[in-house]
Batch of 3 targets.
Target 1
Amino acid sequence: MQSRAAATYQRAFQFIVLMGIVSLLADMVYEGGRSLSGQYLALLGASGTVVGLTAGIGELIGYGLRLVFGYLSDRTRRYWLLTILGYGMTVIAVPLLALTNNWPLAVGLLMVERLSKALRSPAKDTLISYAAERVGAGKGFGLHEVLDQVGAIAAPLLLTGVLAFSNSFQLAFGLLIIPGVLCMAVLLTARRQFPQPADLIGKTPTLSTTGFSRQFWLYMIGVTLFAAASVDFALAAYHLQQQCIIASAAIPALYALAMTVDAVAAFGFGFLYDRIGLYALVGITALAALSTPLLFSDGFLMVIIGIVIWGGVLGAQESILRAAVTRFAPLERRGAAYGLFNAGFGISWFVGSACFGLLYDISRPALIGVSVVLHLTAVLVLWSVARR
């Protein structure tokens, strides 16, 4: 019996690694594309308003529609199909930007990429959650996030080199077809080797018509408060530029630093979550309240500390927040739960970011105060969930 459990653990770990490699390669495609999209749209003649609306509407599509596709994945039970379709749309749409010669077509392809993210995310997270429960939900999602972030860091750096040598956006976008093809190859391998990932936890999901528990909805309130309190890096970068705290060329390096901290923190916080549960999330949310005052200070060292904390909190978002959903959502409702989770988090983040942008122009202390109050309110809600 013990050897069988060990073998199942090993297979679950292998599945998480395979899906992590899929995310790594997919991140090289779409994070690489997103790192070039703003300046590429400008070259094609788009205005600043178009670029801003493209980013905002894209995020609403990418998060808001996850609610729909989450319910669809549970209704159809076609988790693999939705995951494959979603990744397939991504690896086609982004490299096709190399063939565009006007900004409306480029915007359309960027919207397709965001739609593909919404299509696959609830189904993909559901598949990963089955294996993560076997190895430890925090550890499983943390490992997946580490591999995911390798692609998010590598692609922009590689494309920077391509542009430096060729000065060709078409070549840069076109080269993204390579990790795209590799992504689909690894994904189809995972599908062939693990046709039923739910078997990894020894349970077969069945259709259910019951709703979610009160604890799940309390958790969602805490998550939405957490998301609304979080500041986007774009606004922090704007502050650095406006206050001349650091040279403009060095700002992307700070983002790379945050992404590196993200990758390391995701795995570490994942282990912590498996040991002490939701109390880990309570502590991280309290820590997150410190990041906003630091990010919007006028001191270089304070900003660096804020960037490190912000990156660590981002790692927790991608590991612990996703892992905790498995505590409240039964197997048969997991896709819908992840759809609700992602939609609620994304929309709250969007609303919060928009409000913080307005507050920055009015009063920096007001921005900091609102963010801290929202974070501390989220701490109280998550604490109540953890105690129960």
Target 2
Amino acid sequence: MNFIFFSPNFPGYCTSFCFHLKSFGVNVLGIGDADYHTLNETLKQSLTEYIKIDRLDNYDEVLRATGYYTHKYGKIDRFESLNEHWLELEAQIRTDFNIFGTKLDFIANLKQKSKMETFFKKSGVASIPSITKLTRAKANKFIDKVGYPVVVKPNQGVGASLTYKITDTSELEQFLQTKPADVEFIMQPYIDGILQTYDGLVNRDGEIVFAASHEFPYSIMDAVNSGYHFSYYCLKEVSKEIEEAGRRIIRTYGIKERFFHLEFFRSKADGQIIALEVNMRPPGTWMTDAINYSYDMDIYRIWADMVVHHQVEEPPTGTYYTGFASRKNHLDYEHEHEEIMQRYPYEIVHHDSITDAQSRSRGNYAYQFRSTDYDEVKRIAAYIQAVKNKVEVFS
């Protein structure tokens, strides 16, 4: 199998994917913008060959590199980055070289939030109504119908960048006057709910072969707009309601041989599961590692086995709840790093700084920790994130 891994050095977990592909006998062919000597040793050993290009978003450079690999190694079987940012470029390459996977004619359904709503309706899963191509008159008419607060966000985008909760007419006017002209926004009613995910793998036959779920006590939008820190919990089992809704959506999309990361709200008012958005890539912010810690497994190896051999070993059941708790440099925390490590030497399984590109939403430094007791995981997160003179910033 000839597998082109685009940007194999970023995000960092790509090294693990490349390593396991190589271990199964795959020609892992890298294309990236980093100098070869800066790649970590494991990644170097995992790559059959590596081509450095000047800019990852320069399609001509990517096209030429793919053409070179095709000439040297024969037909390319896969082209992947496992990074949402490159979904459209990947689809274009797959279309131009007739490579297995999502093609250009379908990619908008995975990137535009307004199109996701159409698939949610087809699947029979409740979703959030929205409007696009915002004008003042259109926004006012929508708000007259659904009421404040509302949420505005880019129709096509990653994370919570340019995502705002609007609570009154003055905030709406401020948004309309300052929003970037080159970004298409959508508006939705604000849902007071707990964010939960459905994350896993779907094989070449469209069968879900593994799934896990994460819960977020507050949203990335809150972390970005408030300047506060961020946390989540990997659950040791998937709820029946999330499982059913997730399977319906995956079946409706007809996606094959991919990671998926679906986001839902569980309404605080009545417990209803409401679809938020679809991401056909691994969950970010260390969530793949959280799955490994919760299930005592290697999701990177399982993915590679699925791609190469079209099989997956029976995955283990969840044993632990794994928490993620970040801290931001501008906040004054009650407990120093050394105190945290001394208090939870066995529970903390990983800690590290977060890349600058993600620090605004995810934090500057983060800890992962696990326990068989869900309440204990929450207590550890609270200890890590305890702030001196705390002021509540969420509503």
Target 3
Amino acid sequence: MSGLVYITGASSGIGQALALQYYRAGWRLGLVARRTSDLQLWAQTQDLTPARYAIYGADVCDVAAITAAGQACIAAQGLPDVVIANAGISVGIDSAIFDDLEVMRRVYATNNIGLAATFQPFITPMLQRGSGALVGIASVAGIRGLPGHAAYCSSKAAVISYCESLRGECRPYGVKVVTIAPGYIDTPLTRENRYSMPFLMQPEDFAARAFQVVNEGASFRVIPWQMGLVARLLRLLPNALFDRLLAGRPRKHRQAE
């Protein structure tokens, strides 16, 4: 299978790895990033054929800009077969600190409203066509709340629930909604973490597995599978035991740190 894939957050990390995975599989690319010059340089470095990709500049926090990017993709390249809402941020917060409430707002604006706005231009055309896949990148961190991760964990829990709701709405029309929850992936978002990261994956390994998951049309998948087992165990732990296990765990860096 090959076609057109549209990916947000394509200038680094998971998004960049997904773009290269799809390109090597013969797909055309619609790539979205704030830093379009960086993305263009990367495309040239990788010797991507210009006729097989297009770059759209948009910040997913800007609803007007990201929906316009989706509409521009449809006009220039056609309706994608796969849309991957990958753009996201991870910042630690302390809810006792007033300034961190604004950080939390920005996390939600990116990880949640930005994801919904990414999908919005494509939903009705896909439903009318009767095919397509909308892929939301969540996180294992959305399974349970971790100290210092209140904004990120809650935003990714919302991604999981949002995609589940959307899946029920789209299923009768032949459009798939796929939720992928990465574990720890070696990206700029994770390299400053000050705690252990079990089963750390390289972005290209994650992208290869995610590509398979989307092609299979799975509704929800944790990558790697080992983190899926860990996530199930964490979900089953009684609160008292879960809290004791996390006592003293290093917290995510706050923006001010």
